[in-house]
Amino acid sequence: MEWGHPALAITDHGAVQAFTEANHTVSRDSDFKVIYGMEAYLVDDLKEIAVNTKGQTIHDSFVVFDLETTGFSPERNQIIEIGAVKVIDGKITDKFSTFVNPQVPIPFRIEELTSINDEMVMDAPVIADILPEFMAFCEGCIMVAHNASFDMSFIEENCRRLGLPCEKTVVDTVAMARVLLQQLNRFKLDTVAKALGISLENHHRAVDDAGCTAEIFEKFVQMLEKQGIETLEELNALGRSSESQIRKLPTYHAIILAKNDIGRYNLYHLITESHLTYYGRRPRIPKSLLNEHREGLLIGSACEAGELYQAVLNGRPEPEIARLVNFYDYLEIQPIGNNAFMLRDEDRTDIQNEDDLREVNRKIVKLGEMFNKPVVATCDVHFLDPENEVYRRIIMAGKGFSDADDQAPLYLRTTDEMLEEFEYLGSAKAREVVIDNPNMIADMVEKISPVRPDKCPPVIPDSDKTLREICYNKAHSMYGDPLPEIVTERLERELNSIISNGFAVMYIIAQKLVWKSNEDGYLVGSRGSVGSSFVATMAGITEVNPLSPHYYCPKCHYSDFESEEVRAYAGGCGWDMPDKECPVCKTRLVKDGFDIPFETFLGFKGNKEPDIDLNFSGDYQSNAH
Questions:
Q1: Please, what sign has the CA dihedral across residues 466, 467, 473, 477?
Q2: What's the pLDDT tens digit per position in 178-202?
Q3: Using the 8-state DSSP alphabet, how is residue 146 labeled?
Q4: 454 CB contacts (<8 Å, ≥6 apart)?
């Protein structure tokens, strides 16, 4: 607010714990707008096991293949080995295996992983010569691979460069494993092979991995046959993600902003489901659920951990990127310092310098232009000032991050700092992503409160009448009819306050719980200030009687609140009074009363929210809850 900004979005990871503090920090008459949102852990449960199906069955012809590459990006890296087997009628009928000359040195990390070195590929054909042969080998067959989107992205990118058609049906054995081997938590090739009793030698060599994947696929086909699955469409239907599968799918960051009260409600619903239904190491929100409750929400593509950034970074095919872009309402780019950790990652051969990081942002900006999506430059703020990084360092070190000491500059930057950061986009585009588009997003959001101003208690029909009836019945059973004036006055004062402030239902809920527990043979203890409420006593919620010390007769209902002997115990405990007989019927009198004012419980105005603490038996806890 001091910087003159009109709004600020709050997006905690997976939760909304900062909402109340923000709500109390900004006065209601302020023009400053708090945008309430969350950085969600999104699960893409809409992606199918078999992509681009054309009515095929699980008994059609398949080519099971694997690639070895010089890195993760099909745009920047090259294929160095292709291995494949052709499966027709459930039998391996042919094999394809070749090295590919990448025409660049093989990175040392790749050589360590695959045992493929420059000498081995020196005399191998280049991709322009070998890829047409491989596509001819695959003609008329369904493509199968383990983590197929990675391998197919290299095939599709190189086909695009060479002008080769590549409209293939593709089946992913990782997705099949998630459905058919739900007892596993990880689905790497060696893990799945071990679970199925399949030998895997020379892992990370294309021909061996392809052979292993073919055996895995055949096992999966047999498992599908037992379930009556025959077509790829039926396989996709089987793969519609269940709760257990969603808990094992990879998660991506996404920003969810509430535009209005409907959006706030839907945001809270999503958070509830993510914690209670889909929690698996983190609260997960499946895309299918988000689509069901998307009204009133804005969805942003988030940071480098978002699926769009990862797709651009790893050079995923254009149709896949288009599918992702269309899912979001706006796209995000962030300062390159936020992602500088990639420069320290030896496995990231495609990110060598800061300009490589800028190029990813440029591509996202271009996607925004192509698909008419606003692109917003955000700071991804995790701490306010640069020096506050030490607190995040401590937290990350405690969670076991090896690079905790290399903190990204995730502080709140000024407008000038952000304009300077994105000047490589050109001054006009920098202003658009730093100033214009963020303001446009802010203008799309209404000024809302994170909670309703009213209390919204549960509704039990006629709870006020029921409470009054229960209390008077109990009072008459103790003190007779008519009631002593002190009893009537206390009851009416409390009941009027409780009912007029809408608290009767809270008493009735507690009364029902206590009575049910007692009926089932389990006593309930009350604690705290509820003992100062005479209505709670009469409703059976507490055994503490807050009236002044007094005697009453359980037989003839004689009572004594006024004698000098009783008054001597004012402010004390009625149970400390001497034993006495009823002067009317000679029955032993009950001693009661602790002289506790009602204001202790509901405040001087009687409008304090009731805090009824009940202690149930350990054996009965689950029933009560």
A1: positive
A2: 888 888 888 888 899 888 888 777 6
A3: T
A4: none
Closest residue by Cα to residue 341 from 411, 425, 281, 401: 401
Known catalytic residue at 5: no
Distance CA 68, CA 562 (A): 96
Quote the tokens at residue 611.
């805090």
Q: Is 254 helix (H, G, I), strand (E, B) or coil?
A: strand
Residue with tokens 């699960």: 43
CB 264 within 8 A of CB 36: yes
Beta strands in 340-387 (DSSP E): 375-377
Cis peptide leading into residue 107 (ω within 30°): no
In this predicted structure, the answer to whether residue 612 has a pLDDT above a threshold of 90 is no
pLDDT at 204 over 70: no
Question: What gap in Å lies between CA 216 and CA 198, rounded to an integer?
Answer: 7
What is residue 179's DSSP assignment? H
pLDDT at residue 607 is higher than 80 = no
Q: Coil, strand or helix: which one is 37?
A: strand
**Of all residues in the chain, what percent carry a pLDDT higher than 90?**
61
Place of tokens 């002067």: 583
pLDDT at 378: 93
- Tell me how far apart the alpha carbons of residues 556 and 588 are, in angstroms, rounded to a whole number: 11
Rg over alpha carbons for the chain, rounded to the nearest Å, is: 35
Q: 67: which strand partners?
A: 82
pLDDT mean over 271-296: 94
Given the residues 204, 293, 382, 550, the one annotated as active site:
204
Average pLDDT of every residue of the chain: 90
Q: Are strands 252-258 and 297-300 parallel, antiparallel or unpaired?
A: antiparallel
Alpha helices in 422-462 (DSSP H): 427-431, 437-443
